[in-house]
Amino acid sequence: MAGLTNMPFRQIAIRCGSGFTTNEEIDADALIRGNAIACAMAVDDPDLEISAMQLLGNSAETLVPAAIRLVEAGADIIDINMGCPVSKIVRQGKGAALMRDVASTARILSALRREIEDVPLTIKIRGGWEDGASNAVEVAVMAQDVGVDAITVHPRSREQQFGGRAPWDIIRDVVEAVEIPVTGNGDVRSLADAERMIRETGCAAVMIGRGAIGRPWLFDAAYARLDPAGQQRYEAEIVLAHIEAIEAHFPPPIALLQAKKHVVRYANGWRGSPELRERMFALPTIEAIREAYLSGRTGSPDPAPRPAITA
Ligand SMILES: Cc1cc2nc3c(=O)[nH]c(=O)nc-3n(C[C@H](O)[C@H](O)[C@H](O)COP(=O)(O)O)c2cc1C
After folding, report:
1. Helix crossing, 7-15 with 228-249: angle to 10°?
2. Are 51 and 26 within 8 A, CB to CB?
3. Residue 1: CB within 6 Å of ligand 1?
């Protein structure tokens, strides 16, 4: 997830029990131009057993060299983003726009397949472009035919963005239409949700996005069995480890921003969290953020129920 699931977060998710993780989308054009932010994202962590790296792009001319570059950087899986609904992305023919012209997307995926034959090639798709006009099955069958190894389906349409309910029946339709593994995604907030998605759609795996931000311990079945004090200890340990990983990974100004971004999400749903959030964004150092988290935590031994997580 752009701006969030960078290396430190992914290390924490794995520590909590997640299977493999995918990095934030990297724009292929930016990577090829040598853009510093894109290049900084194209780095493998040898401690991550499987490193999936995702590219955004609109043509084989940049996606192919960008994919080769990621493989050289250590990517174990190359994933092509065909689901990003953001206007400035789809205006460039990237992300979910790739679902609109299936024939030209087939040519792009074929070119990628030819050039990166030793590394799994996967795609992440949406249900389709417009509500009520899903072409996920058509896209999935095309992808299988050109040699894509696996597909993740986030079944909302581009028009739906991130709102409303994710129509899981589209995941089931794709599972039934192809033989390659399908990962389901959308509205999974707990291990029980994940089990229900597998039961209802037959998907081979589940991808969790927003539900894990601020709550990476949801990947750990043991967390749910702890008493409230045990859960608080677990959470504090993870949050402090996350802040430490952020400090180790980013230069100081970016580390500060990242620590704020994630810690406000960890505090989401606490009593007084709106004030804490405001205070957090004004803090000048990571040390102050750590202290604010710990004191906010002690000040809220019985956290109020969390509101629904939003984008
Ligand atoms: C802030 C934000 C950034 C995202 N960035 C990406 C991304 O870089 N690549 C991607 O495939 N999906 C991205 N997504 C979509 C999520 O991966 C996921 O498909 C979507 O949020 C639905 O799943 P969820 O209900 O588990 O969050 C992003 C979503 C949000 C809210």
Report:
1. 150
2. no
3. yes
Q: What is the pLDDT of residues 53-103, one digit of tens each?
A: 999 999 999 999 999 999 999 999 999 999 999 999 999 999 999 999 999
**Residue 311 Cβ < 6 Å to ligand 1:** yes
258 three-state secondary structure: helix
Token pair recorded at residue 186:
């959308």
- For the chain, the straight-line distance linking the first and the last C-alpha, in angstroms and rounded, comes to 10
307 pLDDT higher than 60 = no
- Angle subtended by helix axes 286-298 and 228-249, to nearest 10: 170
Q: What tokens does 159 get? A: 């028009």
Give the C-alpha separation, 114 to 59, whole Å: 15
Domain that holds residue 247: 227-298
Q: Give domain status of residue 45, yes or no.
A: yes
Is there a contact between 151 and 174 (Cβ–Cβ < 8 Å)?
yes
Q: Give me 293's structure tokens.
A: 């988290």
Determine the distance separating the centroid of ligand 1 and the alpha carbon of 110, expressed in angstroms: 25
* 246 and 102 belong to one structural domain: no
74 lines ligand 1 (CB under 6 A): no
DSSP 17: T
Please tell me whether residues 249 and 108 are part of one structural domain: no
pLDDT digits (tens, 9 = 90+) for 79-93: 999 999 999 999 999
